[in-house]
Structure formats: C-alpha cells, structure tokens
Amino acid sequence: MTPSPLSRRTVLRGGAAAVLAGLVGTTYACGSDDTAAPAAEVGAGGIKTIKAGVLSVATMSDAKPNCWIENGEFKGFDLDLARAVGAKLNLAVEFAAIDFPAMFPAVAQGRYDMGAASSAGTVERQKVVDFSAGYLGGYLGVLTTKTSGITDQNASTDGKRLGLLQGSIQEAYAKKFLPGATLVMFPDNNAGVASLLTGRVDGYFLDFVVGTDYIDQHPDLVQPIAVPAFDQPAAFPIKKGNTALKDGVDKALGELVQDGTWMKLYLQYFTKAPKPTDLPPYALPTA
Questions:
Q1: Can you name the residues that pair with 119 across neighbouring β-strands?
Q2: Strand order in the sheet with 203-207
Q3: What is the reported pLDDT for 34?
Q4: DSSP three-state, residue 163
Q5: 118 backbone dihedrals φ, ψ, rounded to 5°
Q6: Partners of residue 134 on adjacent β-strands
Q7: Residue 182 and residue 3: Cα distance in Å, rounded?
Q8: DSSP secondary structure string, 24-85?
Q9: pTM for this one?
Q10: 3-class secondary-structure state, position 264
C-alpha cells in the first residue's frame, strides 16, 4: 500500500469512528466538560472526593484487558485494581468512560477524582496532574495484517502509515523507535483498528496486551514488533494538591502488592504476558 503524502501527525475522526461501531461493538463516552467541577467532600483521613464516600474514576471503554465495557459493565485490570484501592480506602468506586485525551484535563479540573486507563505518568503529564506510584509496566506493539509488509524489524515500518491513540505515549516511542513511519492519530483504539482492517493505515501502535485481544477478535491480525516501555509505568492520575488521596492510593497499592491481590489480577488479565519479577511500586520519570 503506497502511503499518501500526509504529515506525520494527522487526526482521523468521523468516518473511522462510524466504522468501529459495526466492527468492534458499542462504546460509551461522557459529554462536554463545560460544566463547573463539583465541590469536593472530605472523608476519613482527610481524603477529598467529589462525592462523599465515592471515588469517581475516569477511564476508557476499548482498551481490553486493561479497561473496557462489556454488556454495560466496566471490566479490566486497571478497573479491578481501582476497585481494590477503593475498598482499602472505604470508598465505593464509580467509573465513567471518556475520550483518552480528555482524561487528564478532566481530572485536573476536578470532574473526576482519579483516572484509570494504564496511562503513563510522563514528565509532561505531571505538569497537569499528580500521579500515584507506578503500578504497571510493559511493552507497546505494532498491530498489523499478515500482508502489510511490516515484520519483526522496526525498519519495516518505514514509509508505512502507522495509527496510534491521540494523546498517548505511543507518539514519542514511535518517533524514537519507528522514525520512518507516517503517524496517524485516532480518538480511540477501536477507530484505529477499524481503519487498519479497512486498509486506511498499515499498522496500529498500542499497548501490546491490548493488541493481543484484537488478534483474538481478528485472527488475520498479527503483532510482529514489541517496543519496551518500562521507563514510563502506568499510574493513576489525581488532581494536583489532593495529597491525602494520592497518599491513600499509594498506601493501598503497596498493601495490594503485599497481600497478593496485584499479582492475582495481573495473572488473571495478562495471560499472554510474562510474569513480572519486579513488583510495584515503579518509579515515575523525573525531569
């Protein structure tokens, strides 16, 4: 497939998003964030939450096995971990699915107490929100068709159109490890994979474990390239200044690692990933 003369940064919406509904299923998203953020309630231990006794969590609907919606139910490693954190803090947990790029400003503005979408605590994002300790590291992968010409060699993406999630860390990794590809941005994973299946892009760059689920759905897809991303571990974004919540989440994460809950969830959801020898908390990058 001959790449069209696009810039390295293109956003596809509209048509691709329409295709995904028929191919991959229903997704849920919140509306506009124009309304004023609700006032926070102060609970036990000085923890501030939007609603008394409730931890409000923004997430994604199409990043299985990390976070997704199935039959109206929020599922995934990140979400079960967030539920376990909530239980440690004596808080009920409520989820809302929004577009990934909107998650960080929404948390920063106090519309949600926390995010949970395997989002890396990058230095740039730390300027917008605080983060919990890192709770997950791993690989990124290039999802493609068996006839695309993309192989296990990074240079095989040269001249190819490579889709990725807008606002994700994949853009920086693609520029570093796959510099010859033309990058095409998508608002969500389903839209990107739909475009891959219809030939609008040659590959789609995403979390490796999320790619394995798309392969289960579409056996003609493969994931020949894996890029390590352990230097940018996933962490829960939290509004800046909510120190009591951050400290409570960090303490809860430590307890969940010690009591075996974290490993149980990891093995439950990441059946095709190696069992980690180094356990959380993982240090976030610093400037």
A1: none
A2: 10-11, 182-186, 161-165, 203-207, 139-145, 221-228
A3: 47
A4: strand
A5: 50, 45
A6: 282
A7: 8
A8: H----------SPPPPPEE-GGG-EESBTTEEEEEE-SEETTTEEEETTEEESHHHHHHHHH
A9: 0.83
A10: helix
